[in-house]
Amino acid sequence: MNWGTLHLILGGVNRHSTSIGKIWLSVIFVFRIMILVVAAESVWGDEQSDFVCNTLQPGCKNVCYDQFFPMSHIRLWCLQVIFISTPALLVSLHVAYKQHEEKKCLEKRQGLLKQEEVEALRKQKMRIVGAFWWTYVISIVFRIFFETVFTYMLYFLYGGFQMARLVKCSASPCPNIVDCFISRPTEKTVFIIFMTVVSGVCGLLNVAELFYLLAKACVRQTRRRPHPSHLPRSSEKEQNEMNELLSVDATHQKMVLELNKTS
Amino acid sequence: MSWNLLRDVLSGVNQYSTIVGRIWLSVMFIFRVLIYVVAAERVWNDEQKEFTCNSRQTGCENVCFDYFFPVSHARLWALQLILVSTPSLLVVLHVGYREHREKKYKKKLYEDKGSIDGGLWWTYFFSLLFKTGVEISFLFIIVWMYNGLTIPRLVKCEVKPCPNVVDCFVGRPTEKTIFLYFMIASSILCIMLNICEMSYLIIKHCRAQCAERSVRKARSSKCGCDSLQRDQARLKALQNGTLRSTMSVQTM
């Protein structure tokens, strides 16, 4: 169990995403998860063992470390990536639901589907319209929200995006004020700035995707309205109801026959 | 041997689960197992090394650590995740048993081997009950063992060979407390999902039973002039008696 599982889950959603969504996914995996795993984790690996305080008082180092690093950057970034990836599950659920409905419809019309037909149905790309559009937009809104919240948390917890070389600690049991030194502060600052910039880029991609979807929806609406050959919405609805009643009637007759057979 | 084995085994369960069961599975893997492996395990990695006592008495640190942390949170969670995931295997075993029966008698005994009805319904229900029981038990164990839901910065230790009362300091207490809250919240979410799923199963089962009873009544009434609507409702109820959804979530 590692980031590969997340990659599998999100890879499935990728098929139904917009182009901006696909770019966002690549940025997440290449510039965030990969950097986290191959570089950032080694930099933060010795964060507590190499955190030294200018005192022999036992426990002072532990207490000062806890005071200045309530939550490690690495853990915050891991949680951030997991949380911003999970709205994609909403999209995944909606896709699965729609595919299940389509499969039911096809089976009603032509009987049990073969394995290849089921696979072809699964691989079909869904158009981002109707209820699916809303699910997709909500997932993007959640992504933007989590991105912002975590970036703000990082800024709030550490008073900025820089790692100091020296911190002055006066928490008990440290006697008076004690100088504590952080390991690799410059390298950590570079990574913090890098990850914050990538987080900003991902946020901008999400905002761009949101505007793209809104623009597409507006264009779709304007295209629908002026076209004279299109049936007005109310008569289209009536036509659909009539078609449904006709098919229901046929199904009823079939059911009566089946019931009579079984009894 | 790692968490991937659990993931592979449980992915097989997915096809026999209800929709709530699939949501539960995603929550399990993403919010619990993944977070445990990539984050929580590392926070508790150096817990004994960073546990410091204000004493030079040899053995005092070891004894105090053992007294205050009899079983590490990380190990408790690993146990909890394994025990909570494995009842789902009972469902897979039951479906396997059905397939075995069909092979043995060389005829089609079940319309749909994976459909949650009959004996499989009870197996599924008991697996949910067991999962919920395990989750609640572990929550109680954590609260009882550590007297609450926070990890203190400082603990006062009087266990021999420590002289008098010795101050001992825990490593990363705030980060550990945050992860403790996170894991408890995800455990409570899983308990609620299990309860929802149990209610969903009971309601579906009751509806199927009612529909079956009304079909039997209609057959025994010998009246051949049933209305079209009643026939449709009866047949629909019979068809809806099969609970399993046939499409699985992509990659779940």
Automatic annotation (TrEMBL), chain A:
Molecular function in Gene Ontology: gap junction channel activity
Localization, UniProt: Cell junction, Gap junction; Cell membrane
Sequence intervals crossing the membrane: 23-40, 74-97, 131-158, 191-215
Pfam families in the cross-refs: Connexin (PF00029)
GO biological process, one term: gap junction-mediated intercellular transport
Domain (Connexin cysteine-rich) ranges: 146-213
Xref: Gene3D superfamilies: Gap junction channel protein cysteine-rich domain
GO CC terms: connexin complex
Main location: other
Keyword terms of this UniProt record: Cell junction, Cell membrane, Gap junction, Hearing, Membrane, Transmembrane, Transmembrane helix
Ranges of residues in domain Connexin N-terminal: 42-75
Membrane association type: Multi-pass membrane protein
Similarity annotation: Belongs to the connexin family.
Quaternary structure annotation from Swiss-Prot or TrEMBL: A connexon is composed of a hexamer of connexins.
Function: One gap junction consists of a cluster of closely packed pairs of transmembrane channels, the connexons, through which materials of low MW diffuse from one cell to a neighboring cell.
Protein name in the entry: Gap junction protein
Automatic annotation (TrEMBL), chain B:
Transmembrane helix recorded as keyword: yes
A Gene Ontology term for the protein's cellular component: connexin complex
Residue ranges of every copy of the Connexin N-terminal domain listed in the record: 42-75
Subcellular location: Cell membrane
The keyword Cell membrane is assigned to this record: yes
GO molecular-function term, one example from the UniProt record: gap junction channel activity
TM regions (residue ranges): 21-39, 77-97, 118-146, 178-203
Keywords, ordered alphabetically: Cell membrane, Membrane, Transmembrane, Transmembrane helix
GO biological process per UniProt: cell-cell signaling
Connexin cysteine-rich domain sequence ranges: 134-201
Bilayer topology annotation: Multi-pass membrane protein
Signal sequence, start to end: none
PANTHER family xrefs: CONNEXIN (PTHR11984), GAP JUNCTION BETA-7 PROTEIN (PTHR11984:SF26)
Protein name per UniProt: Gap junction protein
